[in-house]
Amino acid sequence: MALNQDHFSLLPETLLITILSLLSLKDAVKTSILAKQWRNLWRFRTNVEINDRHFLTINNNGNHEHQNDEPDQMQNLKKLQQVACINFGYRWLQNQTNSPSISSFSLTFSDPQNYQFNIESFIYLALLRQTKSLKLDFSCLNSEAQLPLNNSSTYVGRFDLPQFVYEYKSLESLKLVSCVFRVDKFMYLGRTLKSISLGWIEITDESILRKLVKNCPLLESLIVSKCFKSTIYVIESKSLKTLIIDKCVDLLALSVIAPNLTCFKYCGSFVQFGLSNFPNLERADVDFGLIEMFDEEDGDKIAPLLSKFYFARSLTVCSYISQVLFYNDQVFPLALRLRGRPLVNNLTIKTAFHPSEFNGIYLLLDTYPLLEKLQFEFGQPTIFEEDLALLGHDMYETLWSEEPSRNGCVTNNLKVVEIKGFRGSVNEFKILIFLITYGRALQKLILKVAENNRNAEILATILRNTAMQHRNALNVVVIS
Fold first, then answer.
1. Residues 240-275: pLDDT tens digits?
2. Are 266 and 225 in contact (CB under 8 A)?
3. Between 43 and 437, where is the model more confident?
4. Are 324 and 318 in contact (CB under 8 A)?
5. pTM score of the predicted model
6. Which of 20, 73, 233, 261 has the fewest CB atoms inside 10 Å of its own CB, making it the most exposed?
7. Measured distance CA(258)–CA(281) in Å, rounded
């Protein structure tokens, strides 16, 4: 067989369509130029995607590229582009008439009010093809960069879920963004649902999520992102395995009873957490990136919160946790150890490598004795330097010059350290020298270098030489 022969073209079309179904729509369309056989093959993908963003001219800010033109001119251009998207959708769905079913149907459209009949037709045709996954996104063009604050009315209530969707009994996955739904109508639809994702939706009261989950006895995954109005979320489920609460700005209290939960992610402000024990938990991610004001009392609440993730093997914490632990540096490790040794063996710390985070980082290393892998993710979190100074704490007084606790992970189990966005700053070196000096089990150091850092290899050599002074050779890997 010739070496330059196209082996993909030898595969049956059914297999090629399956491969194309695993690609994004843009990548799948690009294959049409490969050969004559591939020209229309992407149209028969089993996952149908209609997205007006692929037709609208959008700038980097998520707005229409011609928004500064004359209003009538811009609206006429946008209308022409959306009509082209509608026609594309009809042609694609007509190609599916010979297919017994489609695996998923995704519709993203920024002006559903003006095309309600067309949108309902698309959804109806998708359900007629026995789709298992339905994704409806009617958010504004720039919604990804926004939070649901005072302008929430602009982003919600843009489309009502049609009645025939509630009567569909074979759906396994449902995603609704800026879409109004009736939770009391989920009696039939919810019987088969295993995954629900809600975004930019007005949750009017605390009973909504409780009723939704109750009507979905098989539910395994629940994502609530940028929803608002209700200040209390109550979630109770025996089947739920993944729960993600993301940037729900009005939220004040979160209650979760889910004994089979394996993944918990939270991003938002510091709220009142009422979490049950999660004996099957594998991963936990807590990010208080929306906090705007420093509250020293949060330090007393961190330990009880993290103790709920006692069984998790992987834990991710944010910079705010490292900063606020100044105020609980004596009781924080003890509060977790009262139940024994936490099982976390993979810890990720989001950090700016600022001195105000150092004591908190030190305490986290002391609290998780079974830790084998430590990851630092460099970013630009809010640093409350002035608040700490006003409260009389010397943030430049750190523990890196002292020998670590014998009960912590550094001297016993820590094997791998990784920094994402390594810049070679003085503060990064302080932490790394500490870990190299006292990390008896340390085997590997991974430095994923930030852009425009030309001194990475020189810095890596310095770290290798430092390691040689304390133990055998340390494997330092530099990734540009």
1. 999 999 999 999 999 999 999 999 999 999 999 999
2. no
3. 437
4. no
5. 0.87
6. 73
7. 10
